[in-house]
Amino acid sequence: MQDVLSPLSMHHAELALRMVVGVVLGGLIGWERNVEERHFGLRIHMLTSLAAAGFSVAALEAVDWARLQNIEADPFRILEAVVSGVALLAAGTIIKGDGQVKGLTTGVGLWLAGAIGVAAGTGMYAVAVFIATLSFAILYGLRKRPHQRPSDEGQRAEDGSKIPKESES
Fold first, then answer.
1. CB-based contacts of 123: which residues, under 8 Å, 6+ apart?
2. Which pairs with CB-CB distance under 8 Å and at least 24 residues apart come from 90-95?
3. pLDDT (tens digit, 9 = 90+) per residue, 110-163?
């Protein structure tokens, strides 16, 4: 019964640490999205990061298992699938309409949560922490402040270009 419950080459504490690091650091990005009152916030980012960490650990474990069976395995195939899946999820948050693009920052945040999860899942804690720290600093530190919001004179797009008022178009 122990073999069925514990087929991992890594200790359960290490597995838990990898998952928790992914969830906590991914949650940091999601928290910022919640502060900005975005639809995809804390839970989505935490779950994205957890899924990426889980797939990464599974890829590493599958390679270890395959080596014991004298089977050649490529963990990058699993990681490529994770990257593609996160990219699809991130792309789904981006909406273009009325000449505006919305959700781009949230999409990038999900992409970052996936990267954090992969780094944590593969045990690269320093990489996960650096990604999360820099991402949070950029997202939270450089977000639009209330005094920076466009005035009634006309709104501005993320690139700073003026969006004409309805009376101007």
1. 14, 18, 60
2. 90/114, 93/39, 93/40
3. 888 888 888 888 888 888 898 888 888 877 776 766 555 444 445 555 555 555
Residue 19's closest CA among 59, 56, 65?
56
**Residue whose pair of structure tokens reads 């530190």 in the numeric block:** 141
pLDDT of amino acid 6: 44
Reference 136, options 39, 43, 45; nearest CA is 45
By the 8 A CB rule, do 67 and 73 touch? yes
Domain residue ranges in the chain? 10-143
Q: How far is CA 122 from the centre of its chain?
A: 15
